[in-house]
Amino acid sequence: MDARTNSQGIAAAPLGLFAAYWGDMLWRTVASGEALRQRANNMTEHEAAGMPPLLHFESEQVADGHDLQPASNYRLLRVTRCGTDALEKHVRKGAAPVLVVDPRAGHGPGIGGFKRDSEVGMALLEGHPVYFVVFDPEPVEGQTMGAVVQTLATFIDMVAKRHRGKAPIVYGNCQGGWAITLALSHCEHRAALAVLNGSPLSYWAGERGINPMRLLGGFTGGIWPAHWASDLGAGRFDGAWLVQNFEALRPEGVFKKYDTLFAQPETERDRFLEFERWWNGFYQLAREEMLSIAGDLFVGNHLESGEVVVDGHCRADLSRIGAPLVVFCSNGDNITPPHQALGWLKAVYPTTADLVAAGQRVVYLLHQHVGHLGIFVSAGVARREHRAIFHHAESIQALKPGLYEMVLEDSASSESAAAAQFQPRRLEDLPYDANPAGFDKVEALSEITERFYSQWVSPWVRFAVTPDSARELRALHPMRVSRKVWSEQVTPALALLPWVQRWLEQWSAQDPHRVENPWYQLERTGADAIGQAMESWRKSRDLWAELVFEQAYAN
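The chain above was modelled as a monomer; its predicted structure follows.
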């Protein structure tokens, strides 16, 4: 009797674990689907509201680029309050103002300040009054890159004037970083310090098999696809294309995002929705602006050589930037690797002696692992690296001309900024080649194909496209369709998801001990294997892309 009972218990245990796993997996599937439904509704609501900036902080408008000449869709905000955290109480009288410029690279503004522990939050915590540059979803008709640069330069001067001539610390994220270098290098606008976070200035540079985005122009034949997409958009380039390119760079990262939500929806749901609210806000760029960015910067690589002319009269010469520079980059960044963030230095200043003779101070801060978005959104990075930059801003300004690496020490307290050492370095020792072989041929090809498209194809596309057809094409973009298909407005049956989730919770389908269940562990092992397979495929794809590019252009 005892032996038979014991045998039945042994048999029942695996069956119980199996049943618990399947009940929990059903609940996790429904909970994940509910999160995707909520994401779709958040996206629709955000679009209906005009896609306002997603700032955690309260603010007031100081200036509107629509009122300037030339006009742009940029606006200048002053951060006034940080909710119940009241970080604004830390602001010191006479402290240098901080101007944060977010990237306009497909998404809307807010990545530099949509959390308390962000660049904005750390600047307030260190006692600085903070201003934030945002932009509207739609550009001004015919808006040019020159108009954007002139607007940023005007905002820099406005902030200084509001603080009795005290030049601001200008903080640029990704595209915002190279935009402020253009603003500071033309017509000699002033800043106390310019911080470039994950900002590419050497667009041809990169590591073989690691940074494939720089090769894109070689495989598309230049910038004409951007021109074509802008024509199909009735003069607007849809930022969803840029976001799609970003996701295609690392597909295993996209898989991991959804897999993490599925594995632990009760803890990941809020974080997932917070980030996706910003990630899926797709903004537009004007055709003229996009072609300048693609032609002069991405394919042409003209910024480091001083060949970009702004507003027809001001040449953007990086050697004319008088403000000390802080370059924050990461070895884990496949969008803006250290090669693109630092390679331009040797193109502008051939030797360390030239940098010193120019009276310039350049400090670089190198993270080993964080990815491109982590530079801007990681709370840990904000509390450590960004807070340290603000805390040591005056020390950086006081350095003698030259190149330095900023090395942070581990802080004894999470409430204080990390101590820093500024170790002298030599430009000659930087292992980054700004101008690898083959890209000059891509630039030449791009000029030919763009000239042909502009003369023979573009007029016919513009004639056929209407504002209504452009709106329909934007609505049908895969990045929008794949999100909004989860809305009950598109798929009515999904309205049942909240009810099904509550019903499953009532029947205790959710397993609080799932991590101990061997079936769940087996599932996680399978998910890891899928992620690793996708990563291996992506690495092979990128290596083959390098080989094909080298054969086509570098030989």
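Residues 1-11 have pLDDT under 50 and may be disordered.
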